[in-house]
Each structure stands twice: as C-alpha cells, then as structure tokens.
Amino acid sequence: MYKLINRDGNAKRGEFKTVHGTIQTPVFMNVGTAAAIKGAVSTMDLQEMKTQVELSNTYHLHVRPGDQVVKKLGGLHKFMNWDKPILTDSGGFQVFSLAGLRKIKEEGVYFSSHIDGHKIFMGPEESMQIQSNLASTIAMAFDECPPHPATREYMQNSVDRTTRWLLRCKAEMDRLNSLEDTINKHQMLFGINQGGTFEDIRIEHAKLISELDLDGYALGGLAVGESHEEMYRIIEETVPYLPIEKPVYLMGVGTPANILEAVDRGVDFFDCVYPARNGRHGHAYTNQGKMNLMNAKYELDDKPIEEGCNCPACKHYSRAYIRHLLKAKEMLGLRLMVTHNLYFYNNMMEEIRDAIENNRYKEYKKAKLDGFLINDKK
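Structure tokens predicted for Queuine tRNA-ribosyltransferase (378 residues):
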C-alpha cells in the first residue's frame, strides 16, 4: 500500500508498505542480477549502505540455479539472507537484450539460453510462476521492451500485446497467491507502460493499465537509445496519466542527474547497474561529479574518495590505496568502489526524500546538479 506524504511540485515523497517492510520513496533499488551485487558485496554490506530494496533478475535465476531450487530453499529472501523487500523483473528486458536468441509469439517468447543454448519458453504465466517460486516482494509483469527506434505500427502492436500479457499476468498472480504452497501469498504486481517515444501511445497505454488497479506502475522501454531530453519528455507526458496514489517506477535509469530529473517529474522507484558497473571500472560517484581513480593524479592522494562521506570505503581507506588495489586487480578494490557508489546513491535518495518533505526540492536539485559539473569541467 502506497501513502503519499508530501508533494513538492510533481516530486512525490511517499511510503510503500509491503510484507517485507516499508519502503521510503523515492528509492533506488540496488541491482543484484543473480541474487548478488557484483563486486563481492554481501547482504550484510547492503544493510550498512542504507539499501532499502534489492532487485534480482527472473530470467537469470530461472536459468541458474533454477527457480525451483530457490523455492526448495525457502525463496529468495532466505536463499540470499536478505530480510527487506526484493523486486524481481519479469524477464521482459531479456526479450530486448537477447534479440539474436529469441522469437516473440502471442503465447510468449522462445529463447535460447545465453549460457548453454538450451531452449526456453517464457510467457506471462511462466514469468509469474518463476517469480512466485522466487517469492519476491514485488513481481514485474511480463512485457516486450520494443527496440528504439521502432515504427509506429510495430510499437502499437507490441504495446497491445503487452496489455494482453498484463491481463494474463494479473490472473495468474491471483491464482498463485491463493495456492497452499506459495511462499509469499502477498506478492505484489507492477504493470509496465510501453510506447517508446510515441507520447500518444504511451498516454493511451497508461490510461488503460491504470484501470487495472495494480500495486504499482513502471515506465519501461526508456534508456534504450533515445536522448535524455526525449526520455524526460516522455516521463513528463506519461506520469500524469498513472495513478497518483500508486508508486511509479522508471526501469533501468540511471545516472544521478537522470534520477534528480525523473523525481522532479513524479517518479518513485529507480534501478540501474551504473553504480556497481562503473565502480568496478574505477569510477566513483561524488557530489562533485564522477571521479576516475585510475588517474595518475591519485597515486599519492591520501584523502578518502569523498571527504565527509560515511561509507565504509571512505571511512577507512585512501584514494591512493584504492587506486593501487584497482591497478593490482585486487578484488578488494572493486568491492570498495561498489560499496562507495551504492552508498552514494542510497544517501542521495535520503537527501531527495528530505528535500521533498521540506518543500525545497527545486533548490536541492539545482545545487546537486551544479555540484556534479565540477569534475566534469576538469
């Protein structure tokens, strides 16, 4: 259940009650594709870096170790030792990213596994069954993420199919939640709005799925090749047609600047691989923009990644030491970088919530964006 605490312009400050705890929104979900954050970060570490929600991938866990295995071990929370909310995406994005390995039909999608090539079929019912076996807090509806650019005809047909699939997802989830052996009988369902950069298709689809009274709504198919300006325009045009009393999730986005702009346009939930992926490549997010610790100028720098940061990396280690670890290809270097970046994102979301609650979001956003430009100009 979603409770709207305050609105500052279009920015929303809310609380989302789930069976695994209350999520304070806006929130950034930390991406653990295969039930682990890349960079040797444990669930105990996640607690320390202010993580509220962990996100795992339905397709990847279905392929390995298998959702039946996870169910036999008590579900994803027990399996990975995490007691807070988990969102599982539906496998729909893999329809997009595994373009060379799949065939889309009305009944669902035929895949070849990216691991060993074996044939997989996934439709709305299968996606819901896998997510029910994983017993996540929030399940995402199975959709097609259309390519960018796509023709209007392709986009309309794809969106119509996604709507038909959503109805099947809803019916199957209702059935699964009523079964005796279902681990999480309170699993929630978020529907996904699609339509690429065709705002009229987006708006019509938003109106249509809003009538289904789902637990939340996502904007999918953005950050797939369109410009940031196009993405912001679509968010701005579409969000007003989604229910104000439900959370809105912008899938796969993004940079700190993307998040600040999307919050300003009414988005509540975010996820992105950037903080972990960029951390593993030596890039640290700071209030002065992105910093590349591989640069020679940090060789003798005994300051923390960011002064005043309370993350475990900044509290205990210097830029010089972390740079040495990265250069020496020591796993600890990646771990410290990912830890810092996830803490930075989660801490920024805390600041965002505070700013909205105190009706000063516009000033906060401007100051934050101005700060990010410092390193970018160097």
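The first helix runs from residue 43 to 48.
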